[in-house]
Amino acid sequence: MASSNTRSNRTRATYRCSECGWTTAKWVGRCGECQAWGAVAEAAASEPTGRTQAAPVTRPAVPIGQVSAEQAVHHSSGVPELDRVLGGGLVPGAAVLLAGEPGVGKSTLLLEVAASTARRAQRTLYVTGEESAAQVRLRADRTSAVQDQLYLAAETDLGAVLTHVEEVRPRLLVIDSVQTIGASGVDGVPGGVTQVKEVAAALVRVAKTRDITVVMVGHVTKDGSIAGPRVLEHLVDVVLHFEGDRDSRFRMVRAVKNRFGPVDEVGCFDLGADGITAVQDPTGIFVEQHHTRVPGTCVAVSMEGRRPMLAEVQALVTVPAGEDRVRRTTSGLDGSRLALVLAVLQRHAGVPLHKRDVFASTVGGARLVDPATDLPLAIALASADSGAPAPAGVVALGEIGLSGELRRVRDLELRLAEAARLGFTTAVVPADAEARSGPHRVRTGRVVDGMSVIEVPDITTALEVLDVHRRGQRPLTAVEDR
């Protein structure tokens, strides 16, 4: 019996992945969880012995109706678009993780949040582990973020960070970034699985015990996911993704997890040399202002969270230069949705594009994944093929089925109201079930805020109504294409 207890209590070797924390009893070359090569190494682990004994409680349990909710109210961050995503602002005692690609503007955004909090006479502590204090000061001078109540520290040790918190006693703590902070006495290097878990857990404890808001910057991997163990996202209260194209100044913040608000809101920002500013109406960035009607274009109404956003879809159809395979190139659109729309156009609308090079993109670097983009994409493709432009002032929205029917999309009235507000005069939308079974294939006469709404049942009818698909037109030739 004694030897059995000795064997159960002694340390045995296990192997842990340094990327995701997955453990196994034997060494393997590839992690069974995250599929990373060469990331599994030996780590000592001991089995727990005995049973956990009862301990004194911090506070006695009380009926939930007697718990005060005043301490969990939102306070504005000073950045309206960020408040929209957070559900009203920052919550005292909350831990927020902001992740994004390098250079997207995470530090600039959080420096603006810290400066806005300091302007309201609330102490703010900004801890940088990636830059020196002088480098952050240069950015603060450029973005007008120098405030008396904004304290700055350059530290990479967790103990030193906690000491700064004791001395400054801030209402907002910004850590840039959690992967650069290391905890002494913990195995691994800063940024490793064990270190990130310990640092994040310590910062969350500080947020809860001191009732301050902690915002941590997180790195992302090459596939866009948050670097470090998955438990990092479980520890924090809010997970935000900051995204944007390097070639564009437009940035967007999305909430992936939010214990204090919705997760379907999107914040829009403009990142410039003078800092980052909120974009209240981003539609103008994604809609090209044409002086004349141009073939191969159509305006879509996409939902980004709860916000309708108009974006222009452009298409170009050319004759292949040789006998090689035709090209299908997209920018800002899903390639699989383009293939589906092309197949439906050929099979049900008589638009033969299987021997043409097709290029489809959006204006301003917008990324459209909403199924309502199917119809404007089909209209742009048919218009580019026939050379007939769509009428001026037209928006289209609707999902296309494999049989060519148009399916209604969510928040239709909200999308139409936004298009009418921006001055569009006509909207082509899918017909409802009653209209499909009626004697007329096209229903007109409905008006939303001065905008005429045309309901059509399928893609063929939509192209005929807009007169962008001229049957029997002479196809493009290689000479004309040049």
Automatic annotation (TrEMBL):
Q: Which GO terms describe its cellular component?
A: cytosol
Region of interest (Lon-protease-like), residue spans:
357-482
Q: Where does ATP bind?
A: 100-107
| GO BP field | recombinational repair
**Motif extent (RadA KNRFG motif):** 257-261
The record's annotation in InterPro entries points to: AAA+_ATPase, DNA_repair_RadA, P-loop_NTPase, RecA_ATP-bd, Ribosomal_Su5_D2-typ_SF, Ribsml_uS5_D2-typ_fold_subgr, Rubredoxin_2
Q: Does the keyword Nucleotide-binding apply?
A: yes
Q: Which UniProt keywords apply?
A: ATP-binding, DNA damage, DNA repair, DNA-binding, Hydrolase, Metal-binding, Nucleotide-binding, Stress response, Zinc, Zinc-finger
Protein's job: Plays a role in repairing double-strand DNA breaks, probably involving stabilizing or processing branched DNA or blocked replication forks. DNA-dependent ATPase involved in processing of recombination intermediates, plays a role in repairing DNA breaks. Stimulates the branch migration of RecA-mediated strand transfer reactions, allowing the 3' invading strand to extend heteroduplex DNA faster. Binds ssDNA in the presence of ADP but not other nucleotides, has ATPase activity that is stimulated by ssDNA and various branched DNA structures, but inhibited by SSB. Does not have RecA's homology-searching function.
As for family, the record states: Belongs to the RecA family. RadA subfamily.
From the Swiss-Prot or TrEMBL record, give the protein name.
DNA repair protein RadA
Q: Which organism is it from?
A: Nocardioides thalensis
